[in-house]
Amino acid sequence: MKLSPLLIAPAIALALPAVASAQQCDTAGPAPTAYATGVNCRTLEHDGERRRYLVYVPANARPEAPLVFMFHGSSGTGEQFLNHSGWREQADATGLIAVFPTGLRYRMTDSGRLVTKWADFDLVNDIEEDETPPADDVGFVDAMLADLAPLVDERRVYASGFSNGAGFAARLAVDRSETFAAVAFSGGGLTGEHSPARRVPTYETIGSLDPRILDNLDPPLPELPLDPEVLRTHPTIAGHLGLQLATLGLDPDLYGAAVFADAATLRWPALRPLYRFTVLEGLGHAYPDRAPAEFWEFFSQHRL
User: Fold this and answer.
1) Per-residue pLDDT of the chain (304 residues; tens, 9 = 90+)
2) Alpha helices by DSSP H, the chain
3) Residue ranges per domain, the chain?
4) What is the pTM of this model?
5) Which site in 78, 140, 198, 243 is 20 to 30 Å from 175, CA atoms measured?
């Protein structure tokens, strides 16, 4: 599989405040414990592992609510992203149900550290596979969906993610293209071309100061510019965009562009885009504060 040089550097974990060892749970128990308003702490047994996930049900949730999965980055947890990603607040504002699962821990080949990760398409290249082989995280998502089915609208299931979690959200758009109505992620994505059964609408953002990207640009740039034409034609960035466009079966020449005070966006096609790519000015390797509101606006335009 050809790898995109834009995204092959080691992941940098999102800096977050320390999280208490015990998450405050309004309900707790194994699936299928009944859900209530608030934070629902759940576990399920899958593929020989005890997996955990948090489900936030806002007070204004209605029957058959939309569902958003939020996948943390390397070394993160579901608890951290419940508290700091902004998706709990977006749930309160819109009535969506938000799910914050936690990945399994793997020993990294470069550092020897144990780090939580999601099984994106490239995980096997980063871990000591003989110690812990890649988990069936796609199957874990299936199991969570089965548990959540009575609460949600199966036509409005979405995935977001950061860094390694972005790569996993992108994988779900390939392996579960007929389950997820749309995906949106930041700081990661596909590193190879794929052939999903369905073209899943995708919104990708990166930071103009993300070292994971800047360190791999050839020719180098001190910062990603808010210039759509430079972004579209820079060899490294164009290579990354080409993988996503090929996966979605989109014509690279049929695009639109827009520049704002703090962002630049490319869209394929220009009207009712199936793929959006945005560079956010001044952002490093971090999940953007603006992501939940912008991603939710994108999600709201798509359903199965």
Assistant:
1) 233 545 543 333 343 333 333 568 999 999 999 999 999 999 999 999 999 999 999 999 999 999 999 999 999 999 999 999 999 999 999 999 999 999 999 999 999 999 999 999 999 999 999 999 999 999 999 999 999 999 999 999 999 999 999 999 999 999 999 999 999 999 999 999 999 999 999 999 999 999 999 999 999 999 999 999 999 999 999 999 999 999 999 999 999 999 999 999 999 999 999 999 999 999 999 999 999 999 999 999 999 9
2) 78-84, 87-94, 137-148, 164-175, 211-214, 228-233, 235-248, 291-299
3) 25-201+287-299
4) 0.93
5) 78
